[in-house]
Every structure is written in structure tokens, then in C-alpha cells.
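Quick bug: Endonuclease/exonuclease/phosphatase domain-containing protein output formatted oddly.
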Amino acid sequence: MTETLNLMQWNIGLTREDEEDIVTSRLKVLESLIEEYTPSIFAIQEADHKDIKDSIPQEEYNFHISDGKVTAYDNDYWYTPSHKFQSPQYIGLVFEHIGPEGDGVLFVNIHAKSQLRGGRGSPEGSLSNLQNDLYAARSKEGYSLEEVVMGDYNVNPYNDCLISKDLLSAHRSLPNVKTQTKTRPIDKRPLYNPTWHFFGRHDGALGTHYYSTPQYGSPWAVFDQVMVTDGLAYDGEAAVELVTEVGQHRLVKDPPKYIPNEEVGSDHLPVVAKIHYETGISTD
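Here's what came back:
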């Protein structure tokens, strides 16, 4: 049975020390995002605050919290996941009976270290470690999971640590990804990165996260990103959206820069995406 999988990604930027008005505003934005986009599964980073759980409808969602990362999933669609791997920067969970063949999906929530916080080379180190864990998982006999990898990568889609065939091998061309999937061994399978579709926009926000310090790159330094294996992607244009307004909340300041409005939301803008999947479960 074919379904639509709604994905949502947001670095909410909350800590235990944040002032109450900041916490209240960002949690209201989270509630509006969940209500408007009804994500089947979503990833949140920098969610190290005790009240985060109260903003997730617990009658509808189960969730897993690890190192400030929240992975929440609709309990009408998903069985309780099992752990695949974990580090301070990411966590991999396996959901059974989902995917084109019903074999399951490996869902990764990542928050890579940034150059700003961890020094030069920090994102690359986090992503290299993730790729090693993906290699190990894929190399096991009988591995047939589809994969969703999304989060705050702290690098742009064109960075070598994302596109290199020896690392995540995440590309903008779905036909190319489908071809390479057939010719490569499964441990080096490529990922489709629809976030590339945000490039070339002539108005609106130009990224998810704004750096005002020039030495860290161009003003819009990074995109938060959603990547999937070819079996979980549209054959046509990717349905991805950069959220700048939700409910009564405007998440960006005025043009021309459309900088994230941290008085309302966080210093990152949410990303939502839609993909098709097969439940692998008979409804007869």
C-alpha cells in the first residue's frame, strides 16, 4: 500500500538556560509546524530543554531523545524503532515494515559539529564517522533497508564530504542516483539530496542558517538537509519546502536578506519534504 511520508527537520536552538519568552515562542512555532504539516516523522536538534516534550502531541507521537536531538514519529504509522548506531552527533533508528519492499527504513537524525563551535574540519569529522557507521550497517548480510538521513550538517550540499563517492555520496540528480544504486555495492550506495532544489530561488530565504561572520563563508553559510535512498524519492520534482512562515509566526526578518528572526523562531529555518513509501503491510 502506497503512502506519503511527510518529513520535517528543524534545529530549534533551545538550551536549558534560555529565557522563558524565547522558549515559549519557539515551542509555539514547533506546535504550529506539527499542526500544519502533520509530519509522519521529524528531527529536531538543540532541543535540550525539559519543556520540549510538552509541545509534541503525545497522543499522536512517540519520540526518542538523545544528546539534545529529538526524533518523533507518528504512532499510527510506525512501530517502535530499534537502535542501529549512536554517537553524540547522530543517532540511527530502524523502523520495520516500511519502504518499497516493506523491509524497513533506517532513519538518521544528525547534528554535525560546526567550524564555528568545533573548529575547522569538525563537520567533516562528524560526517566521516556517520559514513563509517552506515558502511558497517550496509555491509551486514541481508541488509535491505531504505535510508533517510536528515538534520543540521553544518555544510552546504556541494561540500566534498557530502558529494564524495567515498563519503555520503549525496547528489542532486535522482536519475544519476538511481543508476549508481544499480552499479555500486550496497555499502557505497548513493543518497538523493533534494535540498539542491533550494538553489536558484530568486526571492525569499536563501538558506536555513545565517552566519554574519565573513570568515565562515558566504552570509548564508548552510542548508539543513534531507537525504534519502532512491527507493524513497519521487521520480519527478522533489517536494521540499523551506518554511519562512507558519500559522501566525513569521520566521524571517524583512527582505532583502530574509535573516531568521530569532525573536520568533531559531537561527535556523525548518525544512519539510514529502516522499512516497510502501508500508509493506497488508490491509486485507
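Actually, after a second look the formatting is fine. Residues 134 and 187 are 7 Å apart (CA to CA). Closing.
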